[in-house]
Design goal:
Shape: globular
Number of strands: 7
Low-confidence stretches: none
Number of domains: 1
Strand order of the largest sheet: 3-2-1-4-5-6-7
Number of helices: 9
Radius of gyration: 17 Å
Distance between the termini: 30 Å
Strand content: 5-15%
Mean pLDDT: 95
Order of helices and strands: EHEHEHEHEHHEHHHE
Length: about 260
């Protein structure tokens, strides 16, 4: 994957990077020169394939298993990244999922907590694990992967996911105010309908056709297109962007 952003000498940690946007982002960061830690929870094969792709192109990458909803595992993930690659300069909080579509009367407390933890708590834990080092070095970039669902409430059956992604946008703004004085920039991206395993699982072909008809560009996006914007936010080219959420949706939603 070609990219025009210089990230040579930097270490990136991407959560949920075994497929979709996470994998495309890991590959784009590596193509920009970063050494990349590919986090995965269950999809070891996907993470190893991403690692092999990066290494095969001359880059440096490791694959690290961790459940990022658990503080202890997050700490181990960061420690392993530090030991094998160096201190984290770029954190991409990509891990997340709808898990299943459920309307309010079907949605249990347990499923609500699971989805909030996976999409929002995980970002908090990962940010907390790397923030101290970034603040000491007075440098770093954190990019949170939200969703158009956090802006418009999402499709039916996704209020748990939408609430978490909306919370992630607010979390981005609040954390950016804390860390900016230390030279650490926090921003987010908000992808629209992207051709990933997420939609293979949760959106029917008819739904995807309907979505495409609502997008001014007339098509859904690709993971690589999101990865490129994340690379931009991680780079010095975005040196004056703080607390911003960039919409990547082909014009489906415009602020």
């Amino acid at each position: 994957m070609e990219t025009s952003f210089d990230l040579n000498g930097r270490v990136a940690l991407v959560t949920g990077a075994s497929s979709g946007i996470g994998r495309a982002t890991a590959e784009a960061l590596a193509a920009s020169g970063a050494r990349v830690a590919i986090n995965f929870h269950r999809n070891r094969a996907g993470a190893e394939a991403a690692r092999a792709e990066i290494v095969g192109r001359g880059g440096t990458a490791i694959a690290v298993q961790a459940d990022v909803t658990r503080a202890g595992e997050v700490q181990s993930l960061v420690e392993q990244t530090n030991a094998e690659l160096g201190p984290v300069d770029i954190l991409v909080n990509n891990a997340g999922s709808l898990v299943e579509r459920l309307r309010i009367l079907e949605l249990t407390e347990e499923r609500w907590d699971e989805v909030i933890d996976l999409n929002l708590k995980s970002a908090f834990l990962c940010c907390k694990a790397v923030a101290g080092s970034m603040m000491e070095r007075r440098a770093g970039a954190i990019i949170n992967v939200s969703s158009i669902a956090g802006r418009n409430g999402g499709a039916l059956g996704s209020i748990h996911y939408s609430a978490a992604k909306g919370g992630l946008i607010t979390f981005t703004k609040g954390l950016s105010k804390e860390l900016a004085p230390f030279g650490v920039r926090v921003n987010a991206v908000s992808p629209g309908v992207i051709d990933t395993p997420y939609h293979e699982q949760f959106s029917s072909p008819e739904m995807m056709k309907t979505y495409a008809g609502m997008i001014p560009l007339g098509r859904v996006g690709t993971p690589a297109e999101v990865g490129q914007v994340i690379c931009f936010l991680a780079s010095d080219a975005a040196g004056y962007l703080v607390g911003e959420t960039i919409e990547i949706n082909g014009g489906m939603l415009m602020d």
